[in-house]
Design a protein that fits this description.
With 449 residues, the protein is an alpha/beta fold. The chain folds into two domains: 26-251, NAD(P)-binding Rossmann-like Domain (Rossmann fold, 3-Layer(aba) Sandwich), CATH 3.40.50; 260-441, N-(1-d-carboxylethyl)-l-norvaline Dehydrogenase, domain 2 (Orthogonal Bundle). Helix content is 47%, strand content 12%. The protein has 20 helices and twelve strands. It has helices at residues 33-37, 39-46, 63-68, 103-110, 123-126, 134-148, 164-174, 178-187, 204-214, 255-278, 284-288, 291-308, 317-327, 336-340, 343-360, 366-384, 395-403, 408-413, 421-424, 427-441; strands spanning 26-29, 54-58, 75-80, 85-90, 93-98, 117-120, 153-157, 188-189, 193-196, 222-224, 229-233, 249-251. The strands form three sheets. The chain has a six-stranded parallel sheet. A three-stranded mixed sheet has the order 4-3-10, sandwiched between helices. A three-stranded mixed sheet has the order 9-11-12, with helices on one face. Bound molecules: nicotinamide-adenine-dinucleotide and D-Mannitol-1-phosphate. D-Mannitol-1-phosphate binds next to α10.
Length: 449
């Protein structure tokens, strides 16, 4: 079967220049599945004048570059609803760069006056990357931009982190001094954004199905649910695409939206991922369709998370119901083990914020504590029995902790990279956590396929 390309694409696919000479207005760092199914889709919907083409950069592997370059940047998004599948071709990516081997090209793009927005989806761990990492490249790019006086820039992180704009701004500030720090302070903005669309890793079966529908092989395919949401702080240094025309919400303060999404959706996602994987469920849809687990997720949302969000003024319970309904979509096989990865970094924003707020209000958030317990048991089983994968940037520290003779709860609670002294010293929390860990451990672990 021929490869998807501008020549083989279905009639009506817009033909736009692609490659190092193609004009772009956005550089995206972290060209994974999510960006292709979210920000690139919003941008294509509103870029009538061709002003906001995207140069996508990878930092960890050349795979996406190899997938998209032979296709002239074209790829499709296969939208899978419970009863309907829809395929759309996206042509918004006009250049792809391997940030490790084509560093000069990436820096030149970041210093191009036509580029006015940089977006990021580099995962939680990407914000801790060292020399040669995404942050390093961004800072080098800002230096080149300042030197060239190439004009103001907006850096818009789209990862699941509370206050993602502020987090990034502080990381950039820590790494700069002197005139460059002054230039960046005066010329760069870092709005926060809340992003939402479930985009599982693409499988060979997905590629085969899309190939049959398209009549061409699409190596860059991404699969997504129909739902999508983007709430963006309207604080741009030099213009932006009219994303609101594609349904994005531009607001003054994103924090309440981020908190609600990360605590309700990502918190219950993690709970279902750990409990589900321990019960042998391969996918989130299977876990969310198990009555016990669905009830546990609902208790977390209703009893623990909702009271902590009361002063934010956003509706929570209907939001939570919709989230749990989305999780049951059987057409979207999102693996429990994919959602489970990087737990040491995800636990804080997803569950520990809820626990801290509830404890400060004198409540014991049983559902959120169950989520932490499920993570602990998952980590313990992954380290000791090897039936579950441990995919975590702190895997070594987790393995060492689990090997200590102090017991799972004490050993993992001792990890500063996850917990703090406030939770360690909270005796009632420890007791509750120990009980929940014992409860979850009693369930036999089943190997996930
Ligand atoms: N997939 C989703 O459903 C979804 C939904 C909302 C938000 N997000 C956000 O997007 C992020 C990426 O998700 P995805 O589905 O694209 O994953 P993916 O595995 O398809 O891609 C991950 C991307 O992050 C980059 N990356 C990974 N580790 C990095 C590091 N240490 N430094 C720099 N870059 C690094 C990779 O190179 C790749 O481009 C998530 O971590 C999350 O913050 C994802
Ligand atoms: O992408 P991660 O690894 O940060 O988290 C896994 C999922 O919880 C997450 O991707 C959700 O699907 C997403 O946040 C929905 O918008």
């Amino acid at each position: 079967m021929k490869r998807l390309s501008p020549e083989s694409a279905p009639a009506g696919t817009p033909r736009r220049p692609f490659g190092p000479q193609a004009p772009v207005g956005i550089v995206h760092l972290g060209l994974g599945a999510f960006h292709r199914a979210h920000q690139a889709v919003y941008t294509q919907m509103v870029d009538d004048a061709g002003e906001w083409g995207i140069c996508g950069a990878t930092q960890r592997s050349a795979t996406v570059v190899e997938q998209l370059r032979p296709q002239g940047g074209l790829y499709s998004v296969m939208e899978r609803g419970p009863s309907q599948t829809r395929l759309e071709i996206i042509g918004q990516i006009r250049d792809v760069v391997d940030g490790r081997t084509e560093t000069g090209r990436l820096i030149a793009r970041l210093a191009d006056p036509a580029v006015r927005v940089v977006t990021l989806t580099i995962t939680e761990k990407g914000y801790r990357s060292g020399p040669g990492g995404a942050l390093d490249r961004l800072i080098t790019g800002l230096g080149a931009r300042a030197e060239r006086d190439a004009g103001p820039l907006t850096v818009l992180p789209c990862d699941n982190l509370n206050g993602n704009g502020e987090v990034l701004r502080d990381l950039v500030r820590e790494n700069l001094s002197g005139d460059l720090a002054d230039w960046v302070e005066n010329n760069v903005r870092y709005p926060c954004s809340m992003v939402d669309r479930i985009v599982p890793a693409t499988t060979d079966a997905d590629r085969a199905e899309a190939g049959a529908r398209l009549g061409a092989q699409d190596a860059g395919l991404v699969v997504a649910e129909p739902f999508r949401q983007w709430v963006i702080q309207d604080d741009f240094a030099a213009g932006r695409p009219a994303w609101e025309k594609a349904g994005a919400e531009l607001v003054a303060d994103v924090a309440p939206y981020e908190r609600r999404k990360i605590r309700v959706l990502n918190g219950s996602h993690s709970l279902l991922a750990y409990l589900g994987a321990l019960r042998g469920y391969r996918t989130i849809a299977q876990a969310a369709s198990d009555d016990d687990l669905a009830q546990a997720a609902w208790r977390l949302i209703e009893q623990d998370v909702a009271p902590t969000l009361a002063s934010d003024g956003l509706e929570v319970l209907d939001y939570g119901r919709t989230v749990l309904e989305r999780f049951t979509n059987p057409a979207l096989p999102h693996l429990t083990t994919q959602v489970a990865m990087d737990g040491s970094l995800k636990l804080g924003p997803r569950l520990l914020g809820t626990i801290r707020d509830a404890r400060a209000a004198g409540r014991m958030p049983q559902g959120a504590v169950l989520g932490v317990a499920a993570w602990m048991v998952y980590v313990g089983k992954a380290c000791q029995e090897g039936v579950l994968p441990l995919d975590d940037p702190h895997a070594q520290a987790l393995r060492e902790a689990v090997a200590r003779p102090t017991g799972l709860v004490e050993s993992l609670l001792g990890l500063d990279l996850v917990f703090g002294p406030d939770l360690r010293d909270d005796q009632d929390f420890r007791t509750c956590l120990t009980e929940r860990v014992a409860e979850v451990s009693r369930q036999p672990v089943v190997k996930t396929a």
